[in-house]
Structures are given as structure tokens and as C-alpha cells.
Backbone:
């Protein structure tokens, strides 16, 4: 059966007015914004906020035997990613490419 692509697509169910469609869309300026954030339950931090009283606990591991620090990008990588050694130190395969 052939399909007439020039025929109007509107059916009886699609006869809602533009006003009815606008009522279903939430108003952006209504002020009912959901501020809950699962990753930041205590609220939002503004840029430039005073964080001088905040203490961070960071565990720093010493270099492992199977790791090296690339002398180009200064990232710690696994020994299998060494491309070549220079007088300064090892270079990773990504930096050597």
C-alpha cells in the first residue's frame, strides 16, 4: 500500500491548542527549582567562598615498584607504558607518540 507523505499528519488526538500545551510545560520563571543534589546534600558552594577553615584528609601513597613518573607529562604510570629512558628519566608511550 502506498503512503501519501503530503497528507496532513494531524489526527483527532493531536487537536490540542497551543494554550493547552503551554499549560503543561513548567514555567522557567516560576521559582520552583529543585535544589536537591544527591552529590552535594549540604548545599551549593559559590565560587570564591572562604574555605580556609576546611580540612581535607588525603592519603598519599609512596611510588610503587611497578610505577614511574613520566618526565614529559609528570603523570604516574605503570612500567608497561615506558617508551624510552632519557638522561632525565622515563618517557611514557603517549608523550613519545
Residues:
Amino acid at each position: 500500500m502506498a503512503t501519501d507523505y503530503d497528507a496532513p499528519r494531524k489526527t483527532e488526538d493531536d487537536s490540542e491548542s497551543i494554550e493547552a500545551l503551554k499549560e503543561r510545560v513548567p514555567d522557567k520563571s516560576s521559582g520552583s527549582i529543585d535544589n536537591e543534589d544527591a552529590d552535594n546534600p549540604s548545599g551549593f558552594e559559590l565560587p570564591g567562598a572562604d574555605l580556609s577553615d576546611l580540612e581535607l584528609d588525603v592519603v598519599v601513597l609512596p611510588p610503587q615498584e611497578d610505577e614511574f613518573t613520566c618526565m614529559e607529562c609528570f603523570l604516574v604510570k605503570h612500567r608497561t607504558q615506558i617508551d624510552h629512558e632519557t638522561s632525565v628519566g622515563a618517557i611514557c608511550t603517549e608523550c613519545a607518540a
Notes: Helices lie at 18-24, 93-96.
